[in-house]
Amino acid sequence: MAGTRSGKLFLDSTVFFMCDMQEDFRRFIAYFPDITTVAKRMVDSAKILDIPVLATEHNPQGPLGPTVEDIDTSFFKNYIFPKHTLSMLGCEGFANKFHKMSKNVKAVVLFGVMADICIFNTSLDLVDEGFDVHVVADGVSSKHNCERMIALERLRQSGVFVSTSKSILLHLMKDTSLPFYEEVRLLANNAPPDQGLINALGQ
């Protein structure tokens, strides 16, 4: 159909956004251990695939604290920005860094918290700027799963692509002969979250 976007992802034109994967969220974000596992999977794959990762920490000097230690941020430590806004692009430092590289970027893959607030607002800002936006369904959550389900459905209505970490990572590679294919495939094929996260995507 004319005018329909396919949402294809390519290694040389994709950026990953990791939103507010901070320590204190363990206390009240639904399925937080699961989305931490997925965030780690996405970050580890980005390092192998040489995909840029930009991240935020919401008011990290406050009670939420830093990014969880489970996730290796060493290779993008200079691309983690403190924010106080409800969109990652509302953070001036983050937005400036992203827009400097965005001439080569066509798609952004988002994961983290909260699905109904910062992921939601960031996604809509990116859609308004003309980017293809992919939200990792098994890599986002909120305080309550109802909020997450409705946010994902609302994002679909706005033209955001909602998919799983495995699908996104394998789609990015496309060619099984790539030297790093097997390493990333093994990461992508790790057992997905099994506590209801995937079964509660909202139909």
How would you sum up this structure, described in words?
The protein is an alpha/beta fold and 203 residues long. The chain has a single domain, classed as Isochorismatase-like (Rossmann fold, 3-Layer(aba) Sandwich). The chain has helices at residues 32-49, 92-101, 118-128, 145-157, 165-173, 181-188; strands at 14-19, 53-58, 80-83, 107-113, 132-141, 161-163. A six-stranded parallel β-sheet has the order 3-2-1-4-5-6, with helices on both faces. Strand 5, helix 4 (145-157) and strand 6 (161-163) form a beta-alpha-beta unit. It starts with 13 loop residues before the first strand and ends in a 15-residue tail after the last helix. The mean pLDDT is 92.
Structure summary, number of beta strands: 6
- SSE-based structural type: alpha/beta
Identify low-pLDDT runs.
Answer: none
The proportion of residues forming helix, as a percent range, comes to: 25-40%
What's the structural domain tally? 1
Element-level helix/strand string = EHEEHEHEHEHH
Mean pLDDT: 92
Gyration radius (Cα, Å) is: 16 Å
How big a fraction of the residues is strand?
A: 15-25%
Largest sheet, strands/sense/barrel = 6 strands, parallel
Enumerate how many helices there are, as a single number. Answer: 6
From the coordinates shown, what is the CATH architecture?
A: 3-Layer(aba) Sandwich
How far is it from the N-terminal to the C-terminal residue, by CA? 23 Å
Order of adjacent strands in the largest pleated sheet: 3-2-1-4-5-6
